[in-house]
Automatic annotation (TrEMBL):
Region (Disordered): 204-234
Name of the protein this chain belongs to: Glycoside hydrolase 131 catalytic N-terminal domain-containing protein
Family annotation (InterPro entries): GH131_N
Domain Glycoside hydrolase 131 catalytic N-terminal: 5-197
A Pfam family assignment: GH131_N
Domain of life of the native organism: Eukaryota
UniProt feature, compositional bias: Low complexity: 211-234
Length: 251
């Protein structure tokens, strides 16, 4: 995972901060976690608020069976608004992603495949939610592994068909909110890496068989047929379609 960044018009430090207190304490292999913020200045196309990290790598992140790992948390301070749709850790085609503020219970963090809700859990404050997207690019399927805190990942959704694809530079680690508004929202990320199988289920020990190294900055389920919005843009190569500012960030 490379440190290119999509953000609003202000300095990077307004949207991105690193600190040991921002990481999942169960992850001992990294020094810092990432606090990622959106506010009224982080707009794109006068319609979306977004802050995201995107890969910069020569590795092929779209072949075989890969596991995209990350942990995410919110706080009661600058909490995300559950009345507005948020797209979290998504690919440009949105074949799989997390969402918040949508679905059968908008206060749930839900996992989507092709815009349809397949799993959800209450997005409680100050709880680390650990995920791995189980993507079989060869078979065209995706599944989900999940846990909280220091608990090992378990498979919560078996692989199902999806239009799996990536150019190895279009996975967005971060948040896109579809509605602009006042105030700041803070999201926390930790334990980010991509690996070949077999999956590492222990939290904090991943990286041994990774396709890309970890980014050191970084349950109750529901099944529905809810369909939500996909934010679209013009078709361009690499980050042109993002419409944001891309800079190189030293981690």
């Amino acid at each position: 995972m490379g440190p290119d960044y999509i953000h609003g018009s202000q300095p990077t430090s307004r949207y991105l901060a690193l600190a040991p207190s921002y990481k999942n304490p169960a992850i001992t292999t990294e020094t810092n976690g990432l606090k990622l913020s959106i506010d009224s200045t982080s707009t794109w196309n006068s319609q979306f608020e977004r802050s995201e990290l995107i890969p910069q790598t020569t590795a092929n992140l779209g072949t075989g069976n890969l596991f995209y790992h990350f942990s995410v948390k919110r706080s009661a301070t600058n909490a995300p608004d559950p009345t507005l749709e948020h797209q979290v850790c998504f690919f440009e085609s949105h074949f799989t992603e997390l969402k918040y503020g949508v679905g059968s219970n908008p206060s749930n963090l839900v996992w989507m495949v092709q815009g349809v809700e397949k799993w959800g859990t209450p997005f409680t404050a100050d709880t680390w939610f650990n995920f791995a997207y189980d993507i079989n690019f060869s078979a065209g399927t995706v599944g989900l592994w999940a846990s909280t805190g220091s608990s090992p990942l378990t498979k919560v959704v078996q692989n199902i068909g999806a239009s799996t694809s990536t150019n190895s530079a279009d996975w967005h680690l971060g948040v896109l909110r579809l509605v602009n508004g006042p105030g700041t929202e803070d999201w926390y990320f930790s334990g980010v890496y991509v690996e070949n199988g077999p999956i590492t289920t222990a939290i904090g020990t991943g990286g041994g068989g990774t396709t890309t190294p970890p980014v050191t900055t970084t349950t109750k389920t529901t099944t529905t047929t809810t369909t939500t919005t996909t934010a679209t843009g013009p078709t361009q190569t690499q980050w042109g379609q993002c419409g944001g500012t891309n800079i190189h960030l030293s981690l």
